[in-house]
Amino acid sequence: EDDLDPIETLPNLDYKIVCGNSLIGLPDGAMRNLQVEAELEKLKEDFYNITDESKKKALRQQINTKIRELLDSAEQFAGYSIDFDFKLFFSEVWREKGGFDVVIGNPPYVVDTTLEKWQKDFLIKNYVSAIYQINLYMLFMEQAFKLNKPNGFNSYIVPNTWLVNKLVAPFRKHLLTNCNLISIVDLTEEQVFDATVLPIIFTAINNKTKSELRIINGKDYRFVERARLSRERVLNQPNYLINYQISDEDWDVLLKIERNTFCLEEIAKSSFGVKFYQKGKGVPKQDENIVSNHTFTHDEPIDETCLNILEGKNIDRFYFTPSNKYIQYGKWLAEPRDEEMFVGERVLVRRIVGQTGLIAAYVDGHFCNNSLLHVVKPHKVSSKALAALLNSDLIGYYFIKKFARKEKTFPEIRIHELNSLPVSKYFDSKILDLAYSYANESLKRTQPLLSAFFISVINSIIFELYFPEEIKSAGKEILKHLGDLKPITPLHPSGTSHQGEEQMSEEEKLAIIQSEFERLYDPNHPVRFAIETLDSVEEVRIIKEALK
User: Fold this and answer.
1) What angle do CA 461, 464, 468 make, to 5 degrees?
2) Which domains, from first to last, does the chain contain?
3) pLDDT in tens, 151-173
4) How many CB atoms lie within 10 A of CB 504?
5) pLDDT at 32
6) Within 13 Å and on the Cβ side, how many CA atoms surround 368?
7) What values do phi and psi take at 530, rounded to 5?
8) Which of 387, 336, 345 is nearest to 366 (CA)?
């Protein structure tokens, strides 16, 4: 027979399940009515002990009246609407423990476009995480620690964007220095929600213990520890990126890549592409008719303002293909840019990158690129050489690992990330410029063996520039064997090159490329030997394995 005596009575959940604004409560220093608060505590205690439903109903009404009385008083002091406060509704928790033992949740992923001005002002004043475009999930993360008791636990499932976004670096630093972040479960390969959100689960303790951060792989919902990150290592790097996708091995390679380098922004100016259409933007402001009909876009130039359009699909690694579309360029466009960025030698980089890295091409001519392309105009190095660098395996690996882009279906490079890419102080514009021309001409002529080889030459040059000691120690140097690589004079419609040299025919170019390929591709040539055995250098092997 059943024995019911040992069964513990469930706790009373009245006033434990509450609906209200979890982020905006009683302000610090609000005038408190201690007498009403004391009466409220007595009423709550009586309420939990009463079993008679009619008496509970009457007492519930008294409690609600007292709570509203306190909230009304606080509203007069604060000057804004208050419908909830944790310390008021759960006063016994703070009285007994100083906060909750555990806070868990799936906070709303809502940007600040839904907030009223007074709400934004309050959040910016009261939350470190209310920065850039306010997203409520980060505020809920911060609020969790305010609600925890000392040494309390909290765990949320949230988007992964806060881990590596440069603009929320102050929040990451605040979190890393004020709590013990103990684990991140990577669920980015699982379809957890219908929305296009890449989620992670973090767990933290409300203390300042300096333990390692455990990275746990949650693929197929089998939770296996993948790596550990040192808190000091994260705090000692710019922007405090919490890169949960990389191993200690990757960390070491990234640090070696960054040796003896400077940021790309020191040698080049970068810009967003042009946004052609958006309702309410431009001078005069574009209307729905202009936006839907693409009024300023044409199949051929109709006046002197028209520029040939280049879009993401027109740019491939090492070459580009002009489009058959033209845009009337001027202030009437939604977001025009400095027109100097559309003339002269430059590099165009797709915003949406490939699975193995960036996609960039050298461009020289009057083209207008749309917002799916970034523009990079170097002022201290060759544009072709810079395009070769940006297309390289090394930079592709660096970008994907540094900025945690591996899991994204359509990973995007942001301008600040582009500007921060490391350029070796040993950067050799001359040889990379020439190697780019060889790869470009081979691709345009659909010579797959030749183009693949010269792209391998470029990758090998880049590896040597960034890992000079490692490459030399392994006997895999190739730069010293490329000094006699024959130049290719650029082809120009006028019949002369920019240097005033006579035009080289297409046949002459191809003959030189074929001849140099046969010379360097000879099994006994040190360049081919170095390229084919470069994997013996540990750093190169790690990079190539990661990009497979």
Assistant:
1) 160
2) 11-96 (no CATH), 99-244 (3.40.50.150), 263-546 (3.90.220.10)
3) 999 999 999 989 988 888 999 99
4) 16
5) 64
6) 24
7) -65, -45
8) 345
